[in-house]
Design brief:
- There is one protein chain.
- This protein is mostly helical.
- The protein has a domain of about 40 residues.
- It has 3 helices and no strands.
Length: about 90
């Protein structure tokens, strides 16, 4: 960004440098707890990740969650229709 004289001015954010309220052990415990909660919602699709991304792009779905819901809904619909013809 340049000022009125054409001089480039760079804004630098300052850190607050306030002392930590929590001890380091408590911070580590909380970080670990948060990571455990986050990992419970993860699944591994291994080598299928490329196919997943392709399908996500083709269907123009913005999130992995929406793609998973879409695919599950399609599967349920398929199963429901196939049971009707048995």
């Amino acid at each position: 960004m340049a000022d009125a004289d054409g001089v480039i001015v760079q804004k630098v954010k300052k850190k607050r440098n306030r002392p930590s309220i929590l001890p380091e052990e408590e911070k580590k415990r909380r970080r670990k707890e948060i990571e455990l909660k986050r990992s419970k919602g993860r699944i591994s699709i291994g080598f299928a990740v490329d196919r997943w991304r392709e399908m996500k792009a083709k269907l123009r779905v913005k999130s992995d969650e929406k793609l998973a819901i879409t695919l599950m809904d399609r599967r349920v619909t398929y199963l429901h229709i196939s049971f009707l013809y048995i």
